[in-house]
Amino acid sequence: MKIETNSNVNLKQPNSPPQSIEPKLEAQGKATPPTQIQQNLNNGKQNTPKVAIDNTAQNLQKLQAIAIKFGLDKATGPDKKPFTLEQRANRRDRLKLVQKQQNLERILEDAAEYIDSSNANEEVDPDWLYQFFEAAESIYSRPMQQLWGKILAMQTAKPNRFSLRALDTLKKMTYQEACTFQLACALLLKDKSGTGGKIMTGLYRQQGILNWFKPAKAKHINLSKFGLSYPDLLSLIDLGLIYSSEIESSPFPLGHALALETMQSKVILTIKQPNIILTYYKLTQAGRELASLIATSAKEEYFNQLSEIFAPECEVIKS
Questions:
Q1: What is the torsion angle, in degrees rounded to the nearest 10, for the CA atoms of residue 71, residue 72, residue 73 and residue 79?
Q2: Mean pLDDT of 166-176
Q3: pLDDT at 81 (0 to 100)
Q4: Could you give the CA distance from residue 26 to residue 28 in angstroms, rounded to a whole number?
Q5: What span, in angstroms and rounded, lies between the C-alpha atoms of 290 and 166?
Q6: Which whole number is the average pLDDT over 44-54?
Q7: Long-range contacts, 203-208 (Cβ 8 Å, 24+)
Q8: Does pLDDT of 28 surpass 50?
């Protein structure tokens, strides 16, 4: 979800008429050579003004539509007289209440579609519900309303699944940022319990005592090749979905096996050389909770390259 504005460009007429492209006869009766004719053509092209589209009227219409939607237009009453400032403020407050009520009703309708047959032994915390509806009433985007509806349904079936911090994070998230988070989830590796989401970024081998002063040869994966650029990572970090710095594992011994999972399949990562350290970005608690809402497929190209780059230090087997 970018708005670009186009600068207005005035069309100007050229200061002098375009040069004739017909051959001119010289005093000796000779015509201008063809190369000179082509040069005159090129000069004519260079002097031709560029045409730009003026979008002022279209952008003004968009602005007026926004003003009407949020009750900021200078509306008139039945007698065609403009409302006073106080009347316009009261009208905007009433319109805002109607819009918030409509938002909540749509979210409840979405929640009803996600309700399943799970048997909840606990009631949803009233304080959590109050905070939920306080935040959800200001969600206007339909895709985001569907996410909020899914949260309510899952919290009803299994109370305490989503924290208030996760709600606060989701409230600050735009639809575009939610799409970015979906891209990140397509690169996730989780452990067997389904927690601890990691996005692998590389590895290196820890040097022994005799090689302390030699730089370790690190291998890195370029995440931007798979749709997750560095600015995207910074955005997710600012939202509190990913920890702010790249994390390093402790050194793994030779033969150690990590049982991990993508969105669809299981992955076994086996250490083939001693003292291998993995580097990765890790989801925060709020990030792990919200990742359970995301329906996406694992990006197979990423995991294929992961297998290629990690060899021969690690063997990656998918099943």
A1: 60
A2: 94
A3: 79
A4: 5
A5: 7
A6: 59
A7: 203/276, 203/277, 203/278, 203/279, 203/310, 203/313, 203/314, 204/276, 204/277, 204/279, 205/273, 205/274, 205/275, 205/276, 205/277, 205/313, 206/251, 206/275, 206/276, 206/277, 208/275
A8: no
